[in-house]
């Protein structure tokens, strides 16, 4: 199978230009005849032609690589719904690759760059029973529609139907297909949602990577090169930077570039590292927040019941003083706990004051009553005296 690339998606096929062919020679493969990609730009609707032209001229997408813009133009040509540009669309990567005479891996990277730039959004891919990946549908963002002049435009009015509708649907093969990924690609790579960007030296830089340029003397060209290398290695540069953490702090310029380049080449799942670290941080924050909530609850209960006596249905009597809570059992035994250890007792006291049943069995007191301690001491002394008496008589009891 072989393919011919006749220029950009909207370019008309030109036989000669100054005596020489305008379009490149067809790419031959497997000894078969070259397959010419249909070039029916003249039959496309005017607003679609204008949108494709703006892909190459609009300031909002000019910072993208030419290949990414070609892929975007192909998406607009074959997948954009004229009546509802915000609706989801789907198209085979093989169709894009065949139309542009590039590899599917290049198409995949270009789609990732478009998503990173916030121009498209892709649905999460679902795994099939055959362990293949299904191509997710693509949504054109409001940012892209603004750049190509389709934002807020009413596209639902009737329009004469042309032959391009049928030819485009046949040429694009618009259908959800499984197993189109090349096994050598990183087809299981996770993609995040649209990212925020800032303008640095008239170029759009991801906001989470902007400090590398502003504060650590990394050039924008070096940053974009690192982003491309990371994407080719199956990483996100933001994950690499986040995983490195404070180690990058003292590095500047070329040293920073060299260090990040070495990290990008390592077989480490930086996304997993970042997610694990974030989960641990979230857990620590949740634990700290719960502890603060418990302390606040204890303080409120102490303030509410300080100096009061509350009798429970089971015969217990609760009292709160300035340093502890005192619990008098039904048999007259008294126990006490400090405020910081008595949250469960305070909750039971509050429920008893409200006439509610106990929420859970209260914990055992960490302090023993004076009578219990005296009984234990007497028993130990008796054992000790008995042992010494037996030794003096020549036998062990």
Automatic annotation (TrEMBL):
<protein>
    <submittedName>
        <fullName>DNA-binding protein</fullName>
    </submittedName>
</protein>
<dbReference type="GO" id="GO:0006355">
    <property type="term" value="P:regulation of DNA-templated transcription"/>
</dbReference>
<dbReference type="InterPro" id="IPR011991">
    <property type="entry name" value="ArsR-like_HTH"/>
</dbReference>
<dbReference type="InterPro" id="IPR036388">
    <property type="entry name" value="WH-like_DNA-bd_sf"/>
</dbReference>
<keyword id="KW-0614">Plasmid</keyword>
<dbReference type="InterPro" id="IPR036390">
    <property type="entry name" value="WH_DNA-bd_sf"/>
</dbReference>
<keyword id="KW-0238">DNA-binding</keyword>
<feature type="region of interest" description="Disordered">
    <location>
        <begin position="14"/>
        <end position="37"/>
    </location>
</feature>
<dbReference type="GO" id="GO:0003677">
    <property type="term" value="F:DNA binding"/>
</dbReference>
